[in-house]
Amino acid sequence: MSSLSLKIALAQINFLVGNVSANVDNIIKAAITARDDLAADMIVFPELIVTGYPAEDLLFRADFIEEANNAIQYIAESVNDIALVLGFPELSDDKLYNSAVVLHQGVTLACYRKRALPNYGVFDERRYFTAGNQVCVFEFNGGFIGLTICEDVWQKGIIDANKQAGAELLLTLNASPFNSGKINQREAVICSQVKAAQIPIVYVNQVGGQDELIFDGASFVANSQGEIIYRAEEFKEHIGRVEFINNKPIIGECVPLYDNIASVYQALVLGIKDYVRKNGFGGAILGLSGGIDSALVLALAVDALGSDKVEAVLMPSRYTQDMSNEDAILEAEKLDVKYHIIPIEPAVNAFTGMLAEVFAGTKKDTTEENIQARCRGVILMAMSNKQGKLLLTTGNKSEMSVGYATLYGDMAGGFAPIKDVPKMLVYQLAHYRNTLSQVIPERVITRPPSAELAPDQVDEDSLPPYEILDAILERYVEKDQSADDIIAAGFSREHVARAINLVDKNEYKRRQSPPGIRITSRAFGRDRRYPITSGYKGIKD
Q1: SS3 sequence of 159-174
Q2: Which domains can be identified in the chain, with CATH numbers?
Q3: Active site residue 47
Q4: What gap in Å lies between CA 283 and CA 377, rounded to an integer?
């Protein structure tokens, strides 16, 4: 047994997909900080940090891959007196590998190719990469260190293989995306494996928002008994350090985890912040109705961007209740957000007048309701264009699932922060936000939800109660349970049939909705890909 002693920095840093030169500069800057300020011997970065993750079909571009591969030697030559462990897409003999490289004193000490390529849920790694087939153990500071990448440590056998190859410490580079409960699951699975193998692990995870995905960070170190002795804060950039003496990690700072509701809230805040920042918008704008969904999105946007970067628009119609306007104004004032009041009646009258001849002899139906929503969409998009602010939509997952939204109306926008948040979770998040400071009026939380597009309208006129609907949708959308399974679980056939039929027939709407933040184990978009044109019926007539 050797006497491995070293100080390792964990670089939990937010990088930008596709910007290789900026990522390289940040890698070098972080390495110098770790060397000079933390006296680290080694710094470990997340998976594919040179390109950012996931780079998707950028990985098919030869010029992009060439730039990423050339960057490795440049990094090696730019930093001395500290070892760097980082991820990049390695091109070798016309094959592309998801690799981790160890650089020290201008040379490459080791290079590992990821063996377990995930190809499920949000992952498409077999589309781009060839799997490696060997362990990689290298010598450094008097000890032997093994390398793994993300999915490797979820699969049985790979950690054991490193131990059998002589590794006394395991480093794992990760881009593990967030969903509710994922952090606890991640730690439980990995710690059980390192305990069984009796090998300590340094787990470095990416942090930041990338389109629909959120990376939560929460990097950690576990000893050979599977006990976490260091953890970085969730959703925050951080360069921390842990010290190993005679193969054993010394207990360091261990930041406690958020509970599930708080972690979802923080994920949504980070998602909005990074989408706006990384895409170059000057702020955000949204329609504020006095309902709970828009109230939550307003609070999230302000927490993400600051009140000076957020603008709200009230667009009352003849059906908007006074209390909706009152509550919307109160929300904007509590959050110190600039707001406008633009009644939509003139626009609605103009459109209905223009359409009067072609609508002659027909009865009023949802068409007239949708005209109201689309007038609002035009107003909001015009303001977004003029001001260079991102338009946030306010629809939740329950509504997106059953199509309770208007194409080119309330679905119009650039980003949908709560697209993957079921309605009942919206209420929980609103309650949580009010524990930080009271910004959402209690009446908004307790009143029956309504689209306010018709007289005395409430959501439950058209939908099952949300506590029932959400439970059915979780089983059908996220767990792929059949109608018979859901009914057998105690739900009425009427509610199940109504919900499933709506989900199936509204795929065309969801496909046209803006991207939104993934917080469940299966979101619409990258996770769940169903054909629009399909003869499948989730429930038989």
Answers
A1: HHHHHHCCCCEEEEEE
A2: 6-257 (3.60.110.10), 262-460 (3.40.50.620)
A3: yes
A4: 18
Q: Where are the beta strands (DSSP E) in 211-325?
A: 213-216, 220-222, 228-231, 238-245, 248-249, 284-287, 310-314
What is the value of pTM for the model shown? 0.94
Q: 356 CB contacts (<8 Å, ≥6 apart)? A: none
Known catalytic residue: 397? no
Which residues, at least 6 apart from 116, have a Cβ–Cβ distance to it below 8 Å? 131, 151, 152, 154, 155, 158
Residue 8 CB coordination number (10 Å): 26
Task: Give a three-class secondary structure readout of 26-41.
Answer: HHHHHHHHHHHHCCCC
The number of beta carbons lying within 10 Å of the beta carbon of residue 22 is 12
> Can the peptide bond before residue 54 be classed as cis, meaning omega within 30 degrees of 0?
yes
Contacts for 30-33: CB closer than 8 Å, 24+ residues apart: 30/239, 31/79, 31/82, 31/84, 32/79, 33/239
Give the count of beta carbons closer than 10 Å to the beta carbon of residue 322.
9
Structure tokens at 168: 């006394």
Catalytic residue among 7, 47, 243, 309: 47
Q: Annotated catalytic residue: which of 7, 90, 111, 114?
A: 114
- Tally Cβ neighbours within 10 Å of residue 385: 10
3-state DSSP assignment of residue 255: coil
Catalytic residue among 7, 90, 125, 150: 150
Per-residue pLDDT of 231-256, as tens digits, reads 999 999 999 999 998 878 888 889 99
375 is catalytic: no
**pLDDT per position as a tens digit, 482-541:** 999 999 999 999 999 999 999 999 999 999 999 999 999 999 988 888 888 888 888 876
